[in-house]
Design goal:
244 residues, alpha/beta, Rossmann fold, 2 domains
């Protein structure tokens, strides 16, 4: 059974059809890339899957459950996590406390009021920071991190509750070439327990980490398959030659 399926996913904004019947399937343990020219509908598709936008038509099924009308919080509890392009870490808090807050997201309020979770979650916080090469910056304010490190911190926060599926919208935007390389290395191990849907303009990066690519253009899927299949597609070549 597929982990995520969208069927006929459509989103209309006034006179603009941003998505026109998108069919998408993501399997467990799969890294799935969404690519296409600017305005092709990639981010809109991600927002519909995450619940940030309500689809005009169509169905979204996650882990065998119809979540088309579920709230973002309900989707998160079901195991879906999202990181948008704009970094949303809490800059005045330490790197440690940003991850701690993410881990506390499903902790009962009574436990938070009596500060019982900080000690309990310490090992998990540090393990997460080690995984994303941030342990040596744990007590520094998040604002002191480089742009790339702040992106890593937010990915770490998105993964803190061990989701089944992580949605990433242009995670390498603004990164240096070295930071992009490291980001690929940091994401690879999560495949053991978490699938990934990623929107990215850096085609070299997305080719290196993804198993499957889906290409959107003007709100429709024009190709979906392995990296090799997509690279060899005449339809894809035409889109990137004429519209990118």
């Amino acid at each position: 059974m597929a982990l995520l399926e969208t069927r006929g996913l459509t989103k209309v904004f006034g006179q603009l059809t941003a998505l026109a019947g998108i069919d998408l399937t993501v399997e467990e343990g799969e890294f799935h890339g969404l690519i296409g020219p600017n305005g092709s509908g990639k981010t809109t598709a991600m927002k519909c899957i995450a619940g940030a936008e309500a689809p005009t038509q169509g169905k979204i099924v996650f882990a065998g459950r119809d979540i088309t009308d579920a709230t973002p919080a309900e989707r998160a509890r079901a195991g879906l996590s999202l990181k948008f392009q704009i970094t949303s870490v809490l800059p005045a808090l330490t790197v440690y406390d940003n991850v701690l807050l993410a881990l506390q997201g499903q902790t009962p309020l009574a436990e938070l009021m009596f500060s019982r979770t900080r000690r309990t979650l310490h090992g998990e916080v540090m393990q997460t920071l080690e995984q994303f090469r941030l342990a040596d910056r744990a007590e520094e304010p998040a604002a002191s991190l480089s742009h790339g490190q702040q992106q890593w911190l937010e990915i770490a926060m998105a993964l803190a509750l061990k989701p089944k599926l992580l949605l990433l919208d242009e995670p390498t935007g603004g990164m240096s070439l070295e930071e992009r390389r490291v980001t690929g290395e940091l994401l690879e191990p999560i495949k053991r327990g978490c699938s990934l849907v990623i929107v990215e303009h850096d085609l070299d990066f997305i080719r290196d980490i993804c198993d499957v690519l889906t290409v959107l253009d003007q709100g429709v899927v024009i190709e979906s398959g392995t990296v090799e299949q997509v690279q060899g597609s005449h339809k894809v070549q035409e889109v990137y030659l004429t519209r990118v």
